[in-house]
Amino acid sequence: MISGSIYALLAGCLGATASLSAKLTLGADYLKEMCEAGLSSTSDAKHDNDETTVCLWLDIPLRLLCVVLMFLCNAVMWTFFSKALRYSSSSARATATTTGGNFISSAILGRLIFGETQSVLWWVGISLTLCGLLVLHGSTPQNLPQDDAKTE
């Protein structure tokens, strides 16, 4: 059986992937630039006009693919988050783990896909978030005593 923390981390990663898909769908010309970069690395310089035409033709299907990917990632993310809530000892633990996983995944995907860098203040903030997550995971859940009178 997978623990609630693993489900929460997977939910965070899928949330970041859904955000990436939305950024590719609605963003400036990320898909067109990626298409042109991919085609230019495999062909000669004399085919620049053909590459632009192909990338303009592929722009709409690629955006639609990203929309589908965004909805799929969101659906699976909510499924994993629900399972994380079910298998975690507290909803705060599942929520904090999902948030931490989302932040880290967003940073990694932003760096890999868009070449983004985060400021020192961002890293301080994520470090504090992860320290809070460690405190949540290190604490033991308190079980409230059952009142026998309520069951009768």
From TrEMBL:
Statement: the UniProt record of this protein carries the keyword Transmembrane: yes
Protein name: Transmembrane protein 42a
InterPro entries assigned: EmrE-like, TMEM42
Residues making up the signal peptide according to the UniProt record: 1-21
Transmembrane segments: 60-81, 93-114, 120-136
Domain of life: Eukaryota
Alphabetically ordered keywords of this record: Membrane, Signal, Transmembrane, Transmembrane helix
